[in-house]
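Holo prediction — tetrahydrodeoxyuridine.
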Amino acid sequence: MKQNHGREKELVEAAFAAREKAYAPYSGFSVGAALLTEGGEIYTGCNIENAAFTPGCCAERAAFFRAVGEGERNFAAIAVAGGKTGEAPASACPPCGVCRQVMQEFCDPATFLILLPESPEKWKTYTLAELLPLGFGGHGKI
Ligand code: THU
């Protein structure tokens, strides 16, 4: 993390709190994400599903779109927590491929960190490059 502000634990806890806001009546799988900007702001998101299914949005993209819509362009890290609604997550919730591609658009794959907690106390950290090798484009690059 270029500027992690020593805030990993806070970020993980924010992802768990955001998960409480998930709207997931169709999958019964609730996800929360907390995105840390290089400037030190945290933007959260949750998954938001839809009766027509395809309009649904993952927690990670909800967090990115909220932040980008507020003018943010530089990101340090994201924490993601997901699992069966109403239960503590049973395992880590790695971001889907579409969300990894959205990260690729705005983040430096070598330094952007993805925190995947099994619980609010224990998480593993990956770079975007590790989770999306040979990612396509990014930063207006095509
Ligand atoms: N989901 C996320 O929000 N993020 C992930 O990383 C994986 C999946 C959501 C999409 C859908 O609402 C539910 O979890 C089940 O796939």
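READOUT: The mean pLDDT is 95.
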